[in-house]
Amino acid sequence: MEISLIPTAEQISRESLINKSAVMFDILRASSTVCTALANGCQAVLPVSEVADALALAQSLPEQTCLLGGERGAVRLPGFHLGNSPSEYTRPVVQGKTIILTTTNGTRAIRLAAAGSGLVIIGSLLNVTATARALVAAGRDVALVCAGTRGQFSLEDTLAAGLVIRQLLKLLPSGEATAPAAAPASDGPYAEERPLYKGRPLVLTDAAMAALRLAEYYSANPLQALHDSLHGQKLVQLGLASDLAYCAQVDLLEVVPVYRQGKITLAGEAAVR
Amino acid sequence: MEISLIPTAEQISRESLINKSAVMFDILRASSTVCTALANGCQAVLPVSEVADALALAQSLPEQTCLLGGERGAVRLPGFHLGNSPSEYTRPVVQGKTIILTTTNGTRAIRLAAAGSGLVIIGSLLNVTATARALVAAGRDVALVCAGTRGQFSLEDTLAAGLVIRQLLKLLPSGEATAPAAAPASDGPYAEERPLYKGRPLVLTDAAMAALRLAEYYSANPLQALHDSLHGQKLVQLGLASDLAYCAQVDLLEVVPVYRQGKITLAGEAAVR
């Protein structure tokens, strides 16, 4: 099993995702919002890249069951019911509803992450362990996709990816802690004695290894990473420090949001295999 | 002062370097080799991207004072005097010589890093503090350029960049530890209360912050990072574990190799301003 990390949505290619399970992270705040909405009984989230497309899609859906959510520049869009703060997506507001969501980075990244045709999970700090379990159940190579902030590497998304890797290594039957396999693999320049998973070497790319070490660095205080990040600092300036505190809660939720054919819904254990 | 990090040579753009001091890291092994050669009295290193160009350049220089060095696939090139192991670049071998060097990633990255027209330093773990001092003396924004391995993020180069950042923060008169300035800057969406350096806010991009945290994670044992990296593991497989041990020695050397007009030489304090 190979675990790779794609640092920004711009670096997604079909080759980097093909036949893999993908997880898309945009933890400040699109993926945290999606996880929260679905945990609170929302039927489905429809991620849309452009504001105009969101408005057009809303026209085609029954008004009573549909909500428009999203932001540009971290601020709610005019005419929308909801912004991009998970705190708005409470059970009384979202239960039974379909939410059309458009955000600066995250919704585009979700659609790009679907290029590989495999499983696409929406990951955040809120659902690290649930995400890792779903990846183990799927059994494929894993690509962790960080949305990034305006094309740049983002600290907080990389932290979330690293925490998922840490959890994966704990869950895999022969994780980092086990002894190398007796017979080294020999299928490539970098093959060597490594732990095996389902008969194949378990390989972390250097970017995945760096994310793992970052997760270990911040594991005692994930909120610190959100405050260290430039986007986190921007949200604090906008008076949204409480969103950082919410989004930093590792494993608050037991949800596995899965994107398929334009729609994010909750996956049962069977659905993610 | 802004400190940014470019994770791979492929991501270098003129815009990302213009008017900045750049440091190029390819610590396994090109930049460690350059630092070692110059510390051992080599006159100049001429980095060349292609093997054919290296051979042509050698023809044009006096045979007695010129050595050909370099690798492809981590192995010495046929007809070359030296490979890419710093252990070969001893004083008896290199003193007073000009070395033409061609390596898979590093030499190309050095030339690309020169796109910004400012100072270009060759950085490694061997010369972290000397590099940081030269950057402070230059006083410009800093771009830390990791060569990467075959277009991919490399753990060991990012560690070296992070250690330079850590040292920079120690050397700057108002580093991370100081209180925010009284008057917040207001010149951009991410501007906020930050430590000032020469009247300007000190800003780390998220990638630079991640490198800093990685450096803090590995600071007690930098060699571990080299063994965690895929390229480090490849070198170990090739029997070159001793090169990892050598390259992991933080601040072994007091050199600041500077690239200018096709040539790397040692910079005196005056020359790097």
Automatic annotation (TrEMBL), chains A, B:
GO MF annotation terms: 2-phosphosulfolactate phosphatase activity; magnesium ion binding; sulfopyruvate decarboxylase activity
InterPro entries xrefs: ComB-like, ComB-like_sf
Catalyzed chemical reaction(s): (2R)-O-phospho-3-sulfolactate + H2O = (2R)-3-sulfolactate + phosphate
Keyword Magnesium: yes
Keyword Ribosomal protein attributed: no
Organism domain of life: Bacteria
Cofactor: Mg(2+)
Gene3D superfamilies: ComB-like (3.90.1560.10)
Keywords for the protein's UniProt record, in alphabetical order: Hydrolase, Magnesium
Pfam families on file: 2-ph_phosp
SUPFAM superfamilies assigned to the protein according to its UniProt record, in alphabetical order: ComB-like
Enzyme Commission number(s) from the entry: 3.1.3.71
EC class: hydrolase
HAMAP family (alphabetical): ComB
Protein family: Belongs to the ComB family.
Name listed for the protein in its UniProt record: Probable 2-phosphosulfolactate phosphatase
